Amino acid sequence: MLALAATVQTTAMADGLANADFEAGEAGWDFSAAQGTARVSAEAAFAGWQGMRIESTVRTPDAQVTSARMPVEAGVAYRLSWQARVRVGLGTNVYLRFHDAAGKVLHSEEGRINNDKQGAWTPAHLNSIPPAGATTMEVVMQRPNWRPAEYAVDVDNFALVATPLVAAAPWPGTYKLRPDETARLTAADVPGPDGRIYPDFTWAGVPGGIPNLPVKKRLADMGVRDGDSIAALLEQTASEVAAAGGGVIELGAGTFYLDEPVMFFGDGVAIRGAGRDKTRLMFRYHVPYGEVRFFRLTADQQIDQGSVIEIHANPRDLVALELKVGGRSLSRKIRADHWGNTFTLRIGGGQALNLLGEGNHVFTAIAEYANGDRAQASMTLRIAKGQLGEPAPSQLGALNFVGRGSLPEKKPLVANGRRGDRTIRLALGHGLKSGDKISLVAPASERWRAIVGHTSHWQIQAQNLHEVVSVAGSEVTVNQPLRTEFLVEDGAHVTKFRAQSMGGVESLHLEQVVVPGQPPPGPRIGHTLWHAIDDLWTTGIHTENVWGFWMRDLTLRNVGRNSAYFLMSKHVEVRNCLFDEAIFKGGGGTGYVGFDRTWDSLMDGVETRGMRHAPNVQWNASGNVVRNSRFLGSDGQWHAGWTLENLYENNFIDARGDGGSYGHGLYASGPSSGVHGPQGPRNVVYNNDVVARKDCLHMLGGNEAWLILHNRLVTDQGRAVFAKEKSFDHVIAGNLFVLRRAQTPAIFLGVDSVGVELVDNTIYGALPPLVGFAGGLTTLALDRGNNAKADVPERLPDRPQPAVPSLYQWQLDHLSKIRAWQEAAPERARAAKSSL
Question: What was the pLDDT predicted at 11?
């Protein structure tokens, strides 16, 4: 960062930040380092007469606006809040920067102004505790080097509030449990082999294991030969096999081409090759420059509320896509944050029905390019009521397994669903019956947002898919215990869920073909964070709204976006697969391997190369297990949206890659991650081997009762553990940390990180003190058997050897005892409570 301008003065503030709403123009702010990018403007006002506008069309590294310095109070935490909107391009960064008495910068707490998808005003905040020795602080708005050129951001209504530091948990803890706490244990808990209580991971994977389905069709019997294009035939054959009760479509050896994405809608269909070195599927779908097309639609086709209208265009330097009827724009997408290499736009059939009504309508698709070129096409479609149309995946892949998902009618809970419950109560007349699949949702209520510090756009607090096993009036019993709370006051509800079930892909190589003959890529485009080229931003294998799906013995190479992606899916199982590189690495939602809105799924024996975030869980994913896998060049992540009770076990993770890894070995987003939000409780990291550039474990907050056990974690220059805020009740035990650059403290935790147990860890490169807490008020709940060593050995010490090498396998081996214990848990809890 640039040095502060000499004109900045230290100013005492009786009531916080001066001119926080910019109503006094530039007073109290230093614009000298803004490089001409910032001004106070009436057009930038959120409230009152004026706000600040920050904009540029060229790269402006380190451009910044700085407040007057303010004195730092002892024993307080600061919360800086603001309102902002992103009008063009990406957002910018906001910092609270702390200085010592000599003016040296001690710490900069980072917050971000991110892009709301509609460009609306959005509240945001950051929390910070002054570091030891801080005497003054300032607010800084800065354009960091990694942010691209061409942006326009409005900021207004800053507020800086100080609150006394309190060493207390941010909310009452629920998940830190002991075997003797009978009254607290539920059917969602499992006593482990080491005297600890764990989540139940026995639900992970395809129920009953991957089935051995009979072969129903062979492409060779249908005249298919090496080198043929098979997309249409494969899709038609899958439909026939599903209609006949399911089975395997055997591809045979050879190289086959997919000239368009393949959709699988029926149940029980598996695609099987002759081996990943013998059967090659080459995905070469392409939209030529100058063409915009309606995807999977024909003239006069009927579109209902269960289907979509989707258009595709060539992505090279595409700046906008639009769908119109007459002169009316139904949807327009403009290149912005997380644009990626976008080539699609869609609207739902229900949206079209609401806007246009039933009947025939002429739709016009328009693609616009940076050089002024336009492509246009029109088609007449009939809009009707109903739910029978073809569903569509939200992230297009080469192979897509898609169910219909949730019906629109929400059935509210009339009694709270508690952790460990298997019975929920709905109003009479709910219409559910045994065998139905349901989606159970707890919305992100304002009550819950305030408690956990959630400011993300994500509207769901918790979710899972369940099967109804019995119904007795208003009581609906589901197949497994609830992992968390679903409260009436938060608006918890269920919807009926229509899943595709029991499909899979086995024993083949799937590769996206780079578009041949395209010109060399031009300069990197800021909005996309990569070069605009003709290759499509598509995934290898995509599942959505599925229940029971497997991938086994696959190589997925050179995919456009994600090797495999799972959305709104349950009981996925991925075994013995290689995910080798992605064409695109920048932007959001790219180069991930893991589970997104997916529950009780298993990844075992996977290797990834050159991804961004892998292994990765996000958006309420829970009950998932990732084990026995190698992740080369990517970081382990709990990336977004309150994930809980996931297990990473016996993996090798090397997070030092340059393909978008954050550089921390294990990273969890938090309240300060405005786009991603905080992460939830009781995630487990067991017996892994992790190598990082930065911190071994970096938790930004919302993390309750995580279990970090028996891992070897090595960092080139970071800490062993960092926890910022709302991160408490953790057990960190039996680990080996190697800090190649000595750190003090090696473990740094937030002021509310109460209840943390540090037991039997060995930490090389740790200078005293071993543990520090923001604010200096908090202490460890248990500090026993830890061995801190200042020196780092030349030879890397051996990994810890836990008595039970696999927590997941141990639970499977003791499944009958676990189920019996869980069945008796409610009665034990009632008896224990009555005796109190």
Answer: 32
Containing H/E element for 243? helix 231-243
Q: Cα-flanking dihedrals φ and ψ of residue 278, to 5°?
A: -120, -30
* Element housing 37 (H / E): none
User: What is the distance between the alpha carbons of residues 291 and 293, in angstroms, rounded to a whole number?
Assistant: 6
d(C-alpha 256, C-alpha 282), whole Å:
6
- Under 8 Å CB-to-CB from 806, ≥6 apart: which residues? 627, 649, 650, 687
Query: 10 Å Cβ neighbour count for 373?
Result: 13
- Note the pLDDT of residue 10: 33
SS3 for 693-751 is CCCCEEECCCEECCEEECCEEEECCCCCEEECCCEECCEEECCEEEEEEEECCCEEECC
Distance between CA atoms of residues 594 and 629, nearest Å: 12
Mean pLDDT, all residues of the chain: 92
Residue 356's contacts (CB-CB under 8 Å, 6 or more residues apart) are 325, 330, 383
- Residue 510, token pair as written in the block: 């799937």
Exposed, middle or buried: residue 773 (CB in 10 Å: 0-12, 13-18, 19+)?
buried
What pTM value is reported for the model? 0.93
Q: What is the pLDDT of residues 713-754, one digit of tens each?
A: 999 999 999 999 999 999 999 999 999 999 999 999 999 999
Write out pLDDT tens, residues 198-235: 999 999 999 999 999 999 999 999 999 999 999 999 99
User: Which residue from 628, 599, 597, 633 is spatially nearest to 613, judged by alpha carbons?
Assistant: 633
pLDDT at 379: 97
For 672, the token pair is 């300060």
pLDDT recorded at residue 672: 80
Q: How far apart are CA 10 and CA 69, in angstroms?
A: 5
Torsion, CA 454, CA 459, CA 463, CA 467, rounded to 10: 170
Return the DSSP state at 241.
Answer: H
SS3 of 128, please?
strand
Domains of the chain: 29-164 (2.60.120.260), 189-200+591-816 (2.160.20.10), 215-283 (no CATH), 292-397 (2.60.40.10), 406-498 (2.40.30.240)
Which positions of the chain have pLDDT values less than 70?
A: 1-15, 115-118, 145-149, 337, 526-527, 529, 587, 836
Rounded Cα gap, residues 64 and 24, in angstroms: 19
